[in-house]
Structure formats: structure tokens, C-alpha cells
Fold this sequence. Notes:
Two copies of one chain form a homodimer.
Chain A: E1 3-5, H1 15-27, E2 38-42, E3 45-55, H2 67-84, E4 88-98, H3 104-120, E5 124-132, E6 137-146, E7 160-164, H4 169-178, H5 185-192, H6 198-206, E8 211-214, H7 219-230, E9 233-237, H8 249-254, E10 261-265, H9 271-281, E11 285-292, E12 297-301, E13 304-305
Parallel strand pairs in A: 4-5, 9-12
Antiparallel strand pairs in A: 1-2, 2-3, 3-6, 4-6, 7-10, 7-11, 8-10, 9-11, 12-13
Amino acid sequence: VAAKPVTGIALGTGPEFDRIRAIAAALGDARALGDDCAVVAVGDTSIVLSTDASVEGVHFRRDWLTLEEIGWRSAAAALSDLAAAGADCIGVLAAVTVPTSSNEGELVSLMRGVAAAAQAAGGTVLGGDLTRGPAWSAAITVVGRAARPVSRAGARAGDTLWLTGQLGGARAALTAWTAGQIPTAAHRKSFAHPEPRLCAGRWLARHGATAMLDLSDGLGADAGHLAAASAVRLEIDLALVPVAPGVEAAAAAAGGDDYELLVAMPAEFSADDASALARECDLPLTRIGRIREGTGVALLLDGAAVEIAGYDHFA
Amino acid sequence: VAAKPVTGIALGTGPEFDRIRAIAAALGDARALGDDCAVVAVGDTSIVLSTDASVEGVHFRRDWLTLEEIGWRSAAAALSDLAAAGADCIGVLAAVTVPTSSNEGELVSLMRGVAAAAQAAGGTVLGGDLTRGPAWSAAITVVGRAARPVSRAGARAGDTLWLTGQLGGARAALTAWTAGQIPTAAHRKSFAHPEPRLCAGRWLARHGATAMLDLSDGLGADAGHLAAASAVRLEIDLALVPVAPGVEAAAAAAGGDDYELLVAMPAEFSADDASALARECDLPLTRIGRIREGTGVALLLDGAAVEIAGYDHFA
Lengths: 315, 315
């Protein structure tokens, strides 16, 4: 049985991605470290893998979330990469770092959240590692399989651009917390309990998705990754982007942590098709733009270009 | 293609393992979080996976190792789990946390070490994640495949117990550093540049290994894991255990971080067979004891029982 890696994707712009490019260059393998998932061909199926670390003080704060929510959110962020590949979830591995001051029950709470997210995605906790360290952190590796993994590359001029769900809730919660306010229950839930879109990802892969990714860095930044990987230009009409109640469109496009799917579909994909997905996965799919020849991303509001910043861990 | 987890192993004693047991109980799945590797059956092959975090101040210090050595050692520790399963390496995923004060070149150095270890094992860097955090840390997930993965369970009364390489070098380096001394070059190399025993692991699996694990916690502690998983008693003659020059036998048995393989072989496995492995993998294999009915581990020196402590991250 042949098993070989078949990944390798160009990246968008920003300091984090400059770093990743430098790493890839140092490895002598520009294919690695780009796409949402690594793909390993095993016989006639593809195993897809992704790893994603959530660190206290960077991705979450203990006074914002319970440890069970931290576990769920850490796993959900990684599981979202499987969704973006159109994959089924087999399971997750969790490398958890706990402060020396932590107790047994806290660790069990975090792992309960990880396990709940894995189970909701149709998988299990396959394994893990436990170590002490200076802060809570969970590095989650997800393992899935796909008949035809979808990557960020493959969008073509003429394709249309679609988005699952709505944006901005998670970032609105973050904005409230950092301003010393209490987020609305709905915004808080978006941040604390994101739902990886595995049902939609699989459905879109089956129905011809040409390129897909999940929105972890924000619509503007992530659209840039898809454009770069596919060597096309994305035009997004911000007025079409569904936003969470109480959120401005520009803020929703700039905010990250949404874990919705951005997907390029063939021109013949219709609003009726989108309704079929909505019924099957209980999740709206909205057309928000188109793919053209060229490079980069145009965010348009009332016909005029809008500048927004994507979230960058290193900004 | 069926893809299902088939892991599930009992653990030895100690605070870390009590915690892991509590987690497993909380997950309602005692199968998870025990063996060196998780095993996922894909068609007629098995994908084996393991995740292992190395954290600054816990597993290494910056003044002991270069960042390239930290990268190598982090990956090698995880790759050693593939060796213990008798698996081939496909590749690794690296979730790296870097302090805000770090620079580009430092990150590239660490990843160069990770990539070198993956390549030496016959694999590549499949993917990764990069985040800032309070300290350097690398959570490495290894992906391999095996026709017949070997676990910690399966040793039977009448089997003989064997060990690759020699013990104690890594712990001797650690002891020197923590005493403010400079370790010997050989001891330092054992700690900084452990060699995962993939060649030996595959060979032993092919030649009938009934149970195998790698020595990360120390001979005494890890022998306890094998005994517990296999529901047998291990008798180890410390006089037979090969130790690094300048290391006492009891210290070698107590020390961790060796990443040698401890393996149970059928009674008919001979010294000539061990020589064949030594030639193929350029690595000695030494008989150090036997498997009996019962439970636990007896460490014998000149016929008398010896008490040693295994390394425990939470002790």
C-alpha cells in the first residue's frame, strides 16, 4: 500500500505566513506547512491530518471560558480543518500542557470538552500526551479521511464564492471581553463553542467544491490564502456576507475565530443547491462573491473597495 | 474502507498514570490514552499515530541545547513511539509555540531539527501550526504505518525480555547539567540527539515481538507499563543491562530519556537472532530478563531485589 504526502500550497500575506514560508524554505520542501490539512494517500483512500495549538493567554483566557469550553474550542478549531478538506473525522490526539498548580479535576474537565467535540464530529480521542508547563495549552491533532480531499488550491475564474453560517459573533465576544464588558450569550457561544462544519464540508466536497478553507484568521485574510493558493482573484460583496446580530459587516469580515467555511463552487452551483445543503446540515450557505482571473482579494461595499485587516497572531 | 481505532491498554503506576486513568474514565473510553501509539485500521494496513509535547523548562533548557537539537529531540521522542509499534514513518506534524521575543532564525533552526529527525526516520514534515506563547514548546505528532503494529500488551509467560542499545547516557547528561557541571560529549549526545530505533522496531515486529515499548520514563517505570498492559511479571537482571560508560547500573535503570526499545520475544528467539538484528540495524540487542506469570516488575542485582524510582513528570 503506497502512503505518500501529497500536500503543498502557496500562502497569503502577513507576518505569520512570512515565517511559515521561511520555515518551508529551510526545510527544502515548500509543499509542507501550507494547507489546512496534510493528505496521506493510503491505498484508495486519503488520510487527512492537521494540528492546531491553543495556548492560554493567546487563544483564550481562563476568566473567559471554563476548562471544558477550552477543551471543546481547542478541538473544534482543529476539527474545522477536517471540515475544510471535506473529510470525515476518525479521531483526535491531544497533547495537553497543564500548569503545576492545576488539579486533576481541571484536566479532566478540559479533556471532557475535547472528547465531546471529537464525538460530535463522529470521532473519538485516539491518544494523547500530558506534560506540565508554564500555562494551559492543548495541541490537537485531527485525523480524518476523505475520498477526494478539497484543498485551498483549485478555484477557477468563473467559480462562485460561498460562505456557511454567519460571521462576527466570536470576534464580538472577544471585543467585549477585552473592553471589560460581558458579551451577549450568543456572541459568547460563538467563541466558546464553535461548531466545526463537517457535514457541510463533506456535502460541498461531494457536490464539486473546487477550493475550500475554514475562516480562522478572518474573511479578509483567509480569502487571501485561497486566492494565493488557487492563483485567482476573489471578489467579495460585503453586503452579501451574513453577519451575527449586533455586528457590523466590516468588523465581521475582519474578525477571526468563526470557523465557517469559505468555498468556491462551479458556476452551475445554484441557490437551490445551497438550500439542499441547508436542509441536510441545518446550516445556511450564502453566495458572497465570485472568482476572477488575477490575484488578491477585493472586498466591495456598495461597489467601493474596503480595506480590512485580518487577524495575525504575530501582528 | 473501514477506519476504526483499535487501541486500548492498561497502564503502570505513578501520579502521571493516575491522571491519565482519570481522564480515560472521564471520557468513558478506557481504551484511549494508554499505548505508545493509536492504531487506525485503513483497508489492509494500519496507520499508527502518536503525539508528544516537549516544553522548555520541563523537557529541555535553552542553555543546554541548541534550537536545532531541541527540534531534533522533540521529534525523535515522538518518532520513538513509531519504533515501539514496529512502524514505518510517513511523517510528522509540528505544533510549535514560540516566545514573542524569538526571531525568525530561531524558529527556522528548531524546524530544521524537526525536519532532520523526520527525514532520518524516512518521513517528511507533513504540516504544522505556529503560535506564540510563554515558552518554547513543540508538540510533535508522528504518523506511520505498520502491517502488524506491536503494542505493550501481548507478552506471555515464557517470553524473554530484550533491550536495544545501552541505558543511562541521557540521564547522566541531565544529572551533570543540574549539578552545574558539563556532561561528557557522549552523554550530551545521548540527551541532545537520541536516535529513534525504527530499524530495530520494524525488525523485531517482523520477527515475532509479542510486546514492545520505548524507554522514555526509565527502565523500571516502563517495564511496569509493559507488565501491566500484558498482565504478566517481568524479571530483569540489572547485571545484564548494558549501560553507557561512566554510568552505574541502578542509575541507568532509574533514568529516562533513553528511547531504547524494551521488547518481549518468543522463547525460541536466540542470541544468533539478536546478532542478525545488530548487523541489520547496527545496534546491539541484549537479553536482560524474562516474562513470568504474575504482576509487576522485579529488578534483580546479584540475585537480590533492587528498588528504583522511574521518572515521573508530576512527581
